[in-house]
Structures are given as structure tokens and as C-alpha cells.
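Person: I keep going back and forth on a fold encoding question. Show me how you would write down a chain together with its backbone fold. Please set it down just below, with no commentary around it:
Helper:
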Amino acid sequence: MICRVFILLCIFCFSIGSLNASEKGKTITFAVGHDHDKMLMENYPIYRASWQFLNQSLAKLGYEVDAIILPWARANYYTQLGKADGLFLAANLPGREQWAVLSNPIGMGVFGAFYHKDRKDEHAIIAGVRLGVHDKILTGYNTYELLEVATAQQGFKLLFNQKVDRLIMSESYGKYLLSTELIEFKNDILFDSDVIEKRSIHVAFAKSIAESLKAMAVVNKAIDLGMSDGTYRDVMIKNKVPESMFLPSLDK
């Protein structure tokens, strides 16, 4: 009898140990844009800070993060199909609620339009990066009303060559590109600060996919942990993120 109890106890301890090991080995997958690695290496501040913050916070819960690198519209579609747990980074854009639920916020971003300095008053041809079905960058523009481009880099080349009048996108991402790989355009392209929309930044999850919603619960738990233990602010400061992009409650 004692021997049987001892054997059962060993089996129970082994099972608990295996469960803990499997928990520690879990992975959250994020679909990301085609230039994900470049944005991390060249330090697009809000992007790299958000990536580091989520990685560090999820690691404290025993999770790793894996990036699935795709053109942005396809990354969006992958997430909608549940082939990736979430879409990183995802602003609270109009229309996105039709397919997604958003994680707790991890920052703020400004969206608006860039223009060529010699065509400041022209608005005839407006371009936007292809986002996929539903999502809109600015409230006043439906995707089908824009000249869609596959990447922001293509949009900026059209803008520089004065083939379009406005390129609608994130201010921070646009300025990052104009300070790195598109620096030759920097002196000719400006951001129109008169018409902007400020939006919170998140990870987006497919609202119709059960596994995606489970992943969101884990991510939200990690975000709450990282906010409360100081990881969020430390990472944002380390990466020199402008304080205007901090969450409002943490910008002091």
C-alpha cells in the first residue's frame, strides 16, 4: 500500500513538473511588417520599445515571442485567419473593430499626411499604404478612395516625384523612414500637422478566433505586469521614445 502511494505521488509530481515546463515553453506569435528586423536594428523608437516591452513582460510569464514577417496587408490577413496570434503594432484605427479586438494600450501615435514641399496646397491624389479589408488610417478616407501602395517606401517615392499629393500614414513611422533608408527625400517631404488624429497603439487579435482571444488574455496579463513593475517606462526611456507617445497616465 505504501509502495502504491509512493508511486502515485511520483507520477503526480512528474505531471506537475511537465505542466510547468510546457507552460514555460509556450510561444506567442505576432504577424509583423516586412521591415520588422530593420526597424528593430535601426531603432524606430516606439516600435522597438514596444517589441522589447512585450518580450520582457511575456518572458516573466514563461512565454516567448515569435515574429512572422510578411507584407503588411498579408500580416493583417494572417491575423484575421488565426495563422498568427496577433498583429504587431496595431493602432486603434477606424474600421479595425470589424475584425479585431485590441490588447490593452501600450502607447500613442499620431496619424496624418505627408506632402511635397512644392505641393503644399494640392490634395487631388491621396495615397495610403494597403492595410487590408476594413482598416482605415484616417476617419475621413475610405481605403477605396485612396491610391493604394504596397509599402510606405513606395508611397514616399511617389510623393518625392510629385506623382501624388498626400501620403497618409503614421507620423512616427514616416519620420523614421525619412531619417534612415529614405534620407535623400527628407528635405523635400514634410508632415501636415494641421490635420491629424491621435490614436492608441496595441496588438490586434482576431475576435472570431478562440486561440487568438486566449493569446490576447496572456498578452494583457503581461502588459499589466510590465506597467505595474516599471518595465514599460524603463524601456520607453531607454529607447528614447518621445513622452508624447507614452500612455497618458504614465507620461509624467
